[in-house]
User: Fold this.
Amino acid sequence: MDSTVVPDWSQALAWIDDTLTGAGLRPTGPAEQTRVRPWSVLAKVPVGHRTVWFKANGHCSTYEARLLAALARWAPGRVLEPIAIDAQRGWSLLPDGGQTLRAVAADDPAHWEELLSRHAELQRDLAPHAADMVVLGVPDMGAGVLPGHFAALLDDPAVAAALGDDLARLRAYQPEYERLCARVGGSAVPVSVQHDDLHDGNVLVGDGYRFFDWGDASVAHPFAVLLIALRVAAERYGLRPGDPVLARLRDAYLEPWTAYGTRAQLATEVEPAIQAAKVSRALSWQRSLADADEQELAEWGDAVPGWLAELLVPNVL
Assistant:
């Protein structure tokens, strides 16, 4: 099946075969596309009794392949390391990493404490490479650029039309958002990789904790990663704002950052960071849907105005 991401599937098949051969592997069956989206294509390839995975990123996130290779160098054993990548086309071939945390421990939010702590350690250790990530093409979503992105989104005719009555409220919110971003930008915590879709389905367990699926990643205040992580945990376990479990998960994440302040001080930075990140999330969806057709826009198009409208409602904490 061809797509806007891979307009000629035969080229992808040839690359998969050549890459496996170069790695001393041989496919024992045809590649099967398992997920086709406007922003990426995922396929599984049988290799003996194992499975390897092919991922093709659309132009919105070709940087993921380059980031995967870099993360494998900078943090070996802590990410899913690719067999090979095509840096220009944004293609990667990945081993099967085994079971996710969700598959083995979906019923207990306590397991998220270790997940969040390990991810914070990874972000902390990768912070010195933040500028290198931007060079690789990872979007810069630092606090200094977010107000401009917010204004551009509100000025986009399609986004403005979709926002309806919320447009005026969001325009009125812009000065407050600028002050919020200034506060985030003044943090002592350094920018780092921000996964932007961190949850228990994107971490592999069994041989340590290894994180994968970096297609939404950016370089930003690291605490922004809690926007999705805590929201997914709250929805999964029925946690309401103010629930002590959410505070416990937040504190587990903050512990590795205590060289930059007390846990109480760091806790005051979480809310501004995740609030500011809602604009980054909307922008990521806008990039992802740039080549979407009418049916795809009907399915996912509400994400851009939806995340902007989230600026007007309380967070899960």
About this structure: The chain has two domains: 9-95, 101-312. The two ends are 43 Å apart (CA to CA).
